[in-house]
């Protein structure tokens, strides 16, 4: 049954500190005013300092969660984040095909803390089974390098990578995110199958970028669900994440989370990264 309110489903791992994974996705969905649902793939003991433990749910139980949602409420768009194993990827791919739902894949591989969130032997399954189903794929630079087995050093390399993810790996569109360049502006590049689009912002000097990629792809998912184009969805996501980083909350002992309501604080002055009210 189709619902009048745009609805979205994230299939991902958890972050008990709320900055990344499913918790970040649900916060972003709420801020973008779409109805958010979630299927858990792995339960992670992590915080702003890193990952302390991982428990993967059985593949069959991930499948059961997806069935529970999809036989009741049909999301307009599905997003995947952390999907650790080839077996999990296979059941997710089969489900997306069976229900024929638009799909955003954030190909999460390694957290910024350096912890591995995807098994190395799952890479080929991601390439063969998930990426070709994607309406949009949103790798950061290290992830694009792994997907294409090539190094990315420049903006031209990132643009070439986005083109290759579409033409060689079969995604409908690709955004290569610019957060991992050490210098210069944070420039994301979108290739939509016909043209390259650049989304530049000044790089914000902060260590509080935990969960940026999760939040960004969740906003793209939400905007697509509302009926916006891929270009407009990426544009909104870039604006949203920039405010979320700019107004970050300065919490946690390590790389803190972003502020999911930062977009509501635009124009409010800040001092040393703290918002003045
Ligand atoms: N220091 C920063 N200043 C401004 N934008 C940033 C910064 N770090 C990341 N971003 C933006 O956050 C989004 C996520 O990027 P990135 O950090 O590359 O992804 P991930 O979290 O998957 O590693 C992108 O839009 C990127 O441009
Ligand atoms: C459960 C879970 N999923 C994804 C990530 C990675 O998040 P990301 O948005 O790429 O940002 P970092 O956390 O790597 O800074 C995660 N940590 N946990």
Report on the structure:
Residues 15-259 form the Pyridoxamine kinase/Phosphomethylpyrimidine kinase domain. Its EC number is 2.7.1.49, 2.7.4.7. Keywords: ATP-binding, Kinase, Nucleotide-binding, Thiamine biosynthesis, Transferase. It comes from Virgibacillus phasianinus. This protein has 277 residues and is α/β, with parallel strands linked by helices. The protein has one domain (7-275): Ribokinase (UDP-N-acetylmuramoyl-L-alanine:D-glutamate ligase, 3-Layer(aba) Sandwich). Helices cover 35% and strands 19% of the residues. The chain contains eight helices and twelve strands. It has helices at residues 21-31, 59-70, 86-99, 123-130, 141-148, 155-167, 212-225, 230-246; strands spanning 7-12, 35-40, 42-47, 50-56, 77-80, 102-105, 136-137, 174-176, 186-191, 196-201, 270-271, 274-275. It has a five-stranded parallel sheet, sandwiched between helices. Strands 8-9-10 form a three-stranded antiparallel sheet, sandwiched between helices. The chain has a two-stranded antiparallel ribbon with strand order 3-4. α1 packs across α7 (212-225) and α2 packs parallel to α3 (86-99). The longest helix is centred in the last third of the chain and has 17 residues, at 230-246. The radius of gyration is 17 Å and the shape is globular. The N and C termini lie far apart (44 Å). Bound molecules: adenosine-5'-diphosphate and the ligand Cc1ncc(COP(=O)(O)OP(=O)(O)O)c(N)n1. Ligand LCLJCK34 binds next to β3 and α7.
């Amino acid at each position: 049954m189709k619902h009048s309110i745009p609805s979205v489903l994230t299939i991902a791992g958890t972050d008990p500190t709320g900055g990344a994974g499913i918790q970040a996705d649900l916060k972003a969905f709420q801020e973008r005013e779409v109805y958010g649902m979630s299927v858990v793939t792995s339960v992670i003991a992590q915080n702003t300092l890193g990952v302390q433990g991982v428990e993967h749910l059985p593949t069959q139980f991930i499948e059961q969660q997806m069935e529970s949602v999809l036989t009741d409420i049909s999301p307009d768009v599905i997003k995947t984040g952390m999907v650790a194993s080839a077996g999990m990827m296979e059941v997710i791919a089969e489900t997306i095909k069976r229900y024929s739902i638009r799909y955003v894949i954030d190909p999460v591989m390694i957290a910024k803390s350096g912890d591995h969130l995807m098994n190395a032997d799952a890479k080929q399954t991601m390439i063969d089974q998930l990426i070709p189903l994607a309406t949009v794929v949103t790798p950061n630079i290290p992830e694009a390098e792994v997907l294409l087995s090539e190094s990315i050093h420049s903006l031209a390399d990132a643009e070439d990578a986005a083109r290759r993810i579409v033409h060689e790996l079969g995604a409908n569109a690709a955004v290569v995110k610019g957060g991992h360049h050490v210098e210069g502006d944070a420039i994301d590049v979108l290739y939509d199958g016909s043209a390259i689009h650049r989304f530049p912002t000044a790089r914000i000097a902060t260590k509080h970028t935990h969960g940026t990629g999760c939040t960004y792809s969740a906003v793209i998912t939400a905007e697509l669900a509302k009926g916006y184009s891929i270009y407009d969805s990426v544009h909104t996501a870039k604006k949203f994440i920039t405010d979320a980083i700019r107004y970050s909350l300065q919490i946690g002992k390590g790389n803190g989370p972003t502020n999911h309501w930062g977009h509501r604080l635009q124009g409010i002055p800040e001092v040393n990264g703290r918002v003045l009210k």
